[in-house]
Write a structure and sequence with these properties.
The complex is a heterodimer of chains A (118) and B (521). Chain A is built from four helices and two strands. By secondary structure, chain A is mainly alpha-helical. In chain B, 76% of the residues lie in helices and 0% in strands. The chains are: A mainly alpha (118), B mainly alpha (521).
Amino acid sequence: MPERVRITAPRATRPRRTTVASEIDAQSEVGEIFMRSLMRSQLRLALTTLTLLVITVAAWPALFALFPSLRRAHVVGMPLPWLVLGVAVYPVLIALGWAHARRAEHHEQVFGELLDRR
Amino acid sequence: MTTLATALAVTLVSVATLVVGVVGLRLSRTTSDFYVASRAIGPAMNASAISGEYLSAASFLGVAGLILLHGVDMLWYPVGYTAGYLLLLVFVAAPLRRSRAYTLPDFAEFRLESLAARQVATALVVMIGMLYIVPQFQGAGLTLATLTGAPTWLGGAIVAAIVLANVVAGGMRSITLAQAFQYWLKLFALLIPVFFLLPHVSHHRAPHWSTAGWAEPLQGEHALYLTYSIIVATFFGAMGLPHVVVRFYTNRDGRTARRTTVAVLCLLGVFYLLPTVYGVLGRMFTPDLVADGRTDSVVLSLPGRLLDGPLADLLTALLGAGAFAAFLSTASGLIISVGGVVAQELASRTGRGLGPVAAFRWSVCAATAVTLALAVAAAGVAVAHAVELAFAVAASTLCPLLVLGIWWRGLTPPGAIAGMALGGLTSGAAVVTVMLGSTPGGWWGSVVNQPALCTVPLAFVTMLVASLLTRDRRPAHVARTMVRLHAPDEIELDRGSYHPEGPRGGAMSARRSSYRIDRSS
């Protein structure tokens, strides 16, 4: 445990530049907290996207194994497995990627605004 | 007639590739140009180039062949090849770009501050690269043999010669232009014949393909295991492929890297609708290829079976050109990456005796020669399966290095090396067994044929446990490293001083010493 230190206000005549950016540069505890929160939010987003990928795409073999009737089901005249794996998964993958990139940029923007605010 | 048209088309693609290369030649001068095209390429161009480089013989020929052979379960190959880019976007794209490393060994050295980790990553890049190039050369041989009756080694030799000429003369800038051009060539080469082939389906009174057992998923022994193993290998393998990763350094910053990847997802999604069409058409009209064991040539054979006259010749020639574009682009990208990491090793070992550009050229020549010899020697594995095995090795080695290295501060050099070594040895042993054509039967055979579902978790768990056991070996500057990987590019922050180019921007031989001095200060 580091020793407790009293923090005093800087002199009004000589304002000190203590932005979050300089905290991060100094690798102070405050800076570390900011970096860890950015990483945690991005990692949570990544794991969310991964989970969605598993549910929407990677779950299909398990579904086919659990419900054999799905293997020969037809939708709009097309066999379901071919329709899903040959066509339908691609828009899903693109949508997941697009949404992920948007959210990740949003997290970075929030982080940037926090740093700008000093 | 077919022979003449095909020879002409292949020559045209080759000459076009060389010309685009020469246009880029006067632009590439320094080491930085050679490796990453000076990072001044826009997202649209870059996405086309990434897709052009990625769509290999496996995608152009192999996927349709496997679908013809095994049916709907094989659709997981193209789905996985695309989903691999989604996971690359999710876990790797932006941080990897911000790391400013040129190659995966650079990343290993930068993140882990360990030369030993760098060398293990170098060995893996060479191994994965070669596993991936061999099927490209074999596919080229098969294409030329199918269309013109030339001996099978000739196609591979032609591809090797063109790639060498292009890479040695121009470096990567020329390749970027050529790759972008080749995505569109491949797309249209596969798309245009479909418009002529599909109207014939009703004419020929197609068999009821959709009710046969072939059309249902989970066929054969251990199908569920095999399917999930393909999923794990392709989903997690793409991010660990050396030629894919090097391409991300040509993005301007982390955000552009993400946007480029989303564009790549779109381009791949469009392309991968097409091999399925060829696979199904093949099942209807060329089932004899299954008995002959020539399913990889289904794409090239279809126009000749369904159409006749000059139209069939023209479409066959177009497909041949597209196939050659696939071999050329993927082989170029791989040879650049393998040559790049070997050159870095050479330049740092021989000191200043060998300039970086010369080292790069020599390494590229050596890599091409060795791989060509391997391609001639290796047993005939289905092209798409051979490529997917390279994915399995990447997913079992460099994928955990990237994912844990980027997202977990606790990764240590001994942990990373242990995971890469164990994952590489187990998956590598399986791949070599398959390549030599000596796969055993039963459960063991399924595991060897598709090792990823066992070896990927093994590598991740090994890396985690070994890192936790060696907690005191965490790199000294890991906090600063995380700032560089995760903080948005436009914010002014101290991101550490690691730069793979060295202080004078281009002297690679000075790289390591500069790294040590800068980081210890």
